[in-house]
Amino acid sequence: MRKELHIISDGKRDFPRLLRISEEMNEYAAAIHIREKEATAFQLYSIVKDMQARGIPLCKIYMNDRLDVAKVTGVHGVQLKHHSLPVEEVKRHFSSCRIGKSIHSLEEAKKAEQQGADYLLFGHIFATASKKGKKPVGLSGLESVAAAVEIPVIAIGGITIETVNDVIEAGADGIAVMSGIWDADNPVEAVRAYHNKLKL
Hints:
Helix content is 41%, strand content 18%. With 200 residues, it is of the alpha/beta class. It has a single domain (4-121, 173-199), classed as TIM Barrel, CATH 3.20.20.70.
């Protein structure tokens, strides 16, 4: 199975730049997650519509937590956080969506799979500025989760171009990247580099 590259917005870009770069990243991404914590429902709705207008298909657009916006826009994916509604309830009402669950332990992984999650977003694998003071789960933690569940495990957290191979060898079905892309001097070149690594 082809390894997936998930790009997660970081909430730090102005919307025109977010849209422009997302359009340029489109061909390399399996999923583009809209994770804009401070955005209003209408702003999130507008982002999805503008992405569509720029040629990004709904099948690649994932909404972080905001089920209301996901329902109205018809995006393909919904990413649930630890405090989101229960997976099984979301699955019941969003049967056509691919439902992902963010998890941080083996126990949470098994529970999310039992509840009907379609994939897991697991991390943080390595130390990262967005999780200061929190111990990473490491490659061993990733190996344990990947071996224990049948659904895809997408690794996240501090993954660099140099560590992609290690993460995949540990059992990940793909990677999710935020700062490694958005903080790069050239985000599109960074996406292309991650994409090429996953093709090897």
